[in-house]
Structure formats: structure tokens, C-alpha cells
Specification:
By secondary structure, this protein is α/β, with parallel strands linked by helices. The protein folds into four domains: 3-103, no CATH class; 108-148, no CATH class; 158-238 and 369-403, Ribonuclease H-like superfamily/Ribonuclease H (Nucleotidyltransferase, domain 5), CATH 3.30.420; 239-365. Helix content is 49%, strand content 22%. The protein is built from 16 helices and twelve strands. The strands form three sheets. Strands 1, 2, 5, 6 and 7 form a five-stranded mixed β-sheet that branches. It has a five-stranded mixed β-sheet with strand order 10-9-8-11-12, sandwiched between helices. A hairpin with a 2-residue loop joins strand 1 (16-26) and strand 2. Helix 3 (121-128) packs across helix 4. The protein is elongated and about 95 Å long.
Length: 408
Amino acid sequence: MADTECIARLGCWAGYEYVESWEEQRGQERWCVIRLRPVAGWQRVCSGCGVLSDAVHDATERRVRDLPIFEVAVELVMPRLRVSCGACGPKLEALGWLEPYARVTSRLAASVARLCKLMTLQHVARYYGLAWTTVKLIDHRHLERELGPGADLSDVTVIAMDEFAIQKGHRYATVVVEPSRKRVLWVGRGHGRDDVRPFFELLGKEGCERLQAVAIDMNAAFELEIRLHCPQAHVVYDLFHVVAKYGREVIDRVRVDEANRLRHDRPARRLVKGARWLLLRNRENVNAQADQVRLKELLNANRALFTVYVLRDDLKALWGYRHPGYAKQFWQHWYRRAMSSGIQPLKTFAQRLKPYLAGILAHCRWPLGTNIVEGINNTIKVIKRMAYGYRDDAYFFLRIRAAFPGIR
């Protein structure tokens, strides 16, 4: 097989044929430059309307990047044709292997998009010798084609909502997930009512009426917007955030108060003051023998810390009930113990938690949580950290959606 025939077959440049090739040395890199010309008699297609056209309006020489050959960069030198279309006028020729106005072939763009799933834009740009902005544009367009303008919301009945930090300075974004399929439905900047409203508008009136349950943390903005658009939906409060709030407002506050009370007893104060993470950790996660001994000594020596520690474990058990009546009886018993404890931070927390009881009891009917969303948030952090942050929200949110397309 002749070299020219081999190159033509491997090239798959439909409508164009191989003319010649040569090698160039550009700095430290070798380049293979291939000249192409239009195939005579080939019927051209208008990129505007898709109609066949035999008339060529004009031609402009272009240099287009293609996939490397044996680690050697490849550049095509070719005339880019404009056809004379009766409906559209002068219009670029439509080519299956080259997008209009693109300076890289479609197969190189596809290879760049595949690598962008595993590598940073900067590393992909260095690998192919392309500009960083070119790689980003290629991947952005690929994700838009792959994911479409938005997720299919036609059969969504249960969702979970949570926020994640997008930048320093308390700047947040909201992610909406379908827990059953682990699919990201929507991502938007901000975590206020106005910020999450576009999702419910996108869901539409029928979609809002179809929604049965929403798992959230104790974010008032989320709940108010849900009540406005989906009054029939059950709001389910997540165990993780309630317990985390208990740890911050009760256990940590009592620990500090006890440390201040023991300021004249330095050994005891040092023991209490340095036990923050030990007390906040779940009992089943205290594995080290030394930590177990230390925790036992601490709880035996301090009644207030022992009380709030035990009541935290009891509060977690509330999410294990599947019968609302039994769950409510358990809550009433827990609430009486908290109010009779004499520990002010605990009493304040119990009083503040009481208005949210309906959302907690809704967990019996809808055993949901934002644990899946928290896992997704961790992956979002990895995506953001790999890229050293994103300046383009639209592109960042597309990357998040692409990472969680859902279980099909």
C-alpha cells in the first residue's frame, strides 16, 4: 500500500484528499504537516440548512490541528470552503470531521474531552500543546452536547437539597439531587430563597405538584421556598445536620462552660478543654484504647458532659423509628429529660428544635437524608481542588452534573 493511500485511509477526511506532507521542527517539538485539497465532484453540504450544493462561493486556507501520530503533532493545511446556498447565501461547508470555525478536528476534540474527565485543563493543554482556553471551550461544548440544557425532571418525586462552599468569604452554591438515582438535577449559585427559586420554576407547576418529599438541613430559605411552590411535599430534616448542630450548640458550649468552671483545677480543666473532638466524635468511632479510657474518665468525672453526651446518642435514635406515633412518644420523653436536666444550652437547643418536629417525624414515612448530597459535596470539593478553583460557574456546574449523571 502506498504511503499516500495509507495516510488518506487513516485520515478519514471525507470530501478531502491527501496531497503532500512534510516535517517541521518548531522549537523542541516535531510537527507533521499534511496538505489536503477538496475532492473533485464531491457534493458539498450547507452548514446552515443541510441542503446539498454543487457551487463553491470561495475558499480560505486554514490550519487545523488533528490527533498526533506516534507522539508527533499533526497539522492540516486545507482550503475551508463556503458554498453558494440558494436559501442561506454564502455559508461554510458542513463537515462531519470538523465543526464550523473550529481549529481542531472533531476526533481531537473528543480525545480532549475524554482526558478532561481525568486531568486538569492545564495538563490536557500541555499534553496536546493547545491553549488552556481552547481546551476549556472544547470541554464546555462537549458537556453541553452530552448533558443538554438541563436534567430530565419529568418523573422526579423525591429530592434532596444542600449547599456547598464555592469560594472563600462565605460564598455558597446549592445542589439539588435525586437520591434514588444519585443524579444531580440542578446546581445554582447562592443559598437564599431567590437563589433556589429558578429550580422550582424549571420544575414547573406539574412538577411541583408531583413532588412528594424533600430532604434538607435546617435551612429556613429552602423550607420557605418549598412551602411556597410545593405545599403538599413533606419536608424531611436530616439527621446529620441536627446532630452537628447539637454538637456545636450543646456539647461544645457545655465543654467550654465546664472548662471555665474548672479554671482553678488545672489538670481537670486541661482534660475537659482538650476533649472537643473526642466528645464530638460518634461513640462507635472511638477505636483507640487510649481514647476510650480518656472518654470514660471524662464522662465519669463530669455529670453535665455525661448528660449531654448520652442525650445526643438518644436523639440520634429518633431517626430510627418508622412509626410516627412511637417516634413522637420518644421525642416527648427526650424533650422532658432535656428540659429537666438543668443545663441551659441543652434546654435552649430542645426549645429551638421543637418547632421542627414535623420534619423530623416525616423521616418515618420518608427515610431520607442528605448523606448522599454530602457525599456528592465531597466529590465537588475534589473537582474544585483538582482545577484549583473555577472562575466560570456555568462550566463548573456542568462538570458537577457530568460527574453524577445518575444510575440508569
